[in-house]
Amino acid sequence: MKQTALQTFVSRFLILILNLGLVIFTTNYWGSSGKGIISIVIADLALVGFVGNIFVGASVTYFASKFKTEQILLYAYLWAILSGISVPFLISFVHEQEYLSYLIILSVLTSLLSANINLYVGRQHLKNFNIYTILLQGLQILFILGLVYLFDKAEVQTFFVSQILCLLVLFAVSTFQILKHCEFSNISFSRDLSKKLFDYGWKIQVSSFLQFLNYRLSFYFIEFFKGLSSVGIYSIGVALSEAIWMVSRSLSVVLYSDVVNTTDPLAAIIKTKISLKISTLVSFFFILMLLLIPAEIYVMIFGKDFGQSKEVILLLSPGILAIAASNIVGYYFAGINKLRILNVKSIIGVLFTIVGSWLLIPRWGIAGACIVTTVSYCASSALLFWKFYQITDFKMRDFILSKGEISLLLKSIHLRK
């Protein structure tokens, strides 16, 4: 596990660097207003993804070792197309979406590729998972640079076109890799499988959707009360802060893959506690590094519109650390199919976000959004920890790496490929 976690962490670190480069380019090239447009479309894309992921998300991972690939992908692909077309139209009735056609294409392609990538996780082919997640950022950067500098495409739509091209290439390659090992005669509809996929998928997606609202609802409140430019400014601080989550997300992917494939409950808890230690300590270190960077550096990198980025990071940091730790526990509960607590935790966070955003954002703007988000993150994470430590003893050493564990983590580099 530990070597795979390290490999996944390295891949996430590369993704962070690539994503940072993409953020720097978009903020300098299109400014806070352009970044605001991109942030809203990406937030809408995430909303669509929560419906799509009922069949293409964690349910694919969970049942990948239990059913035939051909049967799983049949449902995943059909649902990806159906949800990717219908949900964006529903969103457009809720709030104006100028780039609806791009949102539809991105939604379908993102869901199709997610099905393939999540299948790799379920089959414990994490090397492929890491490669594709890196390429997802790397290829987009290449496409966007080519469109801007070779074809002189200066509109903000160029960002979405580059995403579409990237998704098309990766879906085509990953589908070829998967299908060459499939037997087309095994493709069939199964009522049992569809029921299980849907039952597991909708439960975990309710939690994910509520958590998304916890993460991104403030974007829509800021857009409503303060405008798109404020969304752009806020989103930079959020993106930098949430980059800290690369640690917990890397560990969570590996932990989830291990937990859904293990029959030893005690081993799952031990792995969870080790991942919890690493995530908490490394995330704290990265947050500290971001806070030590002078505000002038953020302005120099992202442009004069983004002077508040340091303040956003400071106000969000307690909540970011809370989620970095609780993500690990959340994936443990998902891996053992205990999803109710995840829903309760997310509902609590959303309630804090809605009430707090309505009260504080009109008065304090971006700073108010940060305070609301931090309180929401800490409250929801506290509930998850309370539930986890009801089934296992709480010890302070759960958050402190021992010398033996550090040594084992380093030695594992040579033990597992």
First-residue to last-residue Cα separation: 10 Å
Helix content: over 70%
Low-pLDDT runs of 5+ residues are 408-417
Shape: globular
Describe the largest sheet.
none
Oligomer: single chain
Order of helices and strands: HHHHHHHHHHHHHH
Count of alpha/pi helices: 14
Task: Return the average pLDDT rounded to an integer.
Answer: 80
**Main structural class:** mainly alpha
Q: Determine the strand fraction and express it as a percent band.
A: under 5%
How large is the radius of gyration? 21 Å
The beta-strand count equals 0
List the helices and strands and how they pair.
Blueprint: H1 2-56, H2 58-63, H3 69-94, H4 100-122, H5 126-149, H6 157-179, H7 191-226, H8 228-242, H9 246-260, H10 265-292, H11 295-302, H12 309-335, H13 340-388, H14 403-411
Helix pairs in contact: 1-3, 1-4, 1-5, 1-7, 1-8, 1-9, 3-4, 4-5, 4-6, 5-6, 7-8, 7-13, 8-12, 9-10, 9-12, 10-12, 12-13
Keywords:
417 residues; mainly alpha; 0% strand; single chain
Q: Would you kindly provide a brief summary of this structure?
A:
This protein has 417 residues and is mostly helical. 82% of the residues lie in helices and 0% in strands. The chain is built from 14 helices and no strands.
Structure description:
With 417 residues, this protein is mainly α. 82% of the residues lie in helices and 0% in strands. Helix 1 runs antiparallel to helix 8 and helix 7 crosses helix 8. The radius of gyration is 21 Å and the shape is globular.
